[in-house]
Task: structure prediction
Amino acid sequence: MELFEKRLSGECLYEGKIIDLHKDEVLLPDGNTSIREVVKHNGGVTAAALTDKNEIYLVSQFRYPNSHVLTETPAGKLEKGEDPLDAIKRELKEEIGAEAEKYYFLGTFNPTPAYCSEIIYLYVATGLKEGEQHLDEDEFLDVKKVPIEEAVRMVLDGEITDGKSQALILKTFMLLQDGSIHKFLI
Result:
């Protein structure tokens, strides 16, 4: 059986600044039809910004949908048609006030593929030149650096619950441990 669903019809129920909500009728592989509710999102970027001492930058901010503070790797949304590498460069300047000499692309992360089209691009940034933050006017966050091993412990102990950050921290740690991170230099 071919695992594919064909869109037969649909409508946009809501158009927002960050997301759009669609309701589509789809043809299933067995010939039946079903309804799919889809959140359309331009995607995002995140980076494991590493110092020369293998410390990773983490940001903590209040996340309104979750009603509490989450600790994450620096991240941001993509503007429509924006290159992900340009976006992560912008986000690092905004959130932690840093520019990187080298970037490594570790692939993508699908945070909620059952109902959302968002794809997050994962990067490691090294050779950091530190400067001043340039936060968006509605953005408030705390920044700290911790050894990458401490960040891994925070993931494993449930202190970092953000999925993109968990995946990126663990993937970065493993690639540093086995020495293969250089393969991902862009």
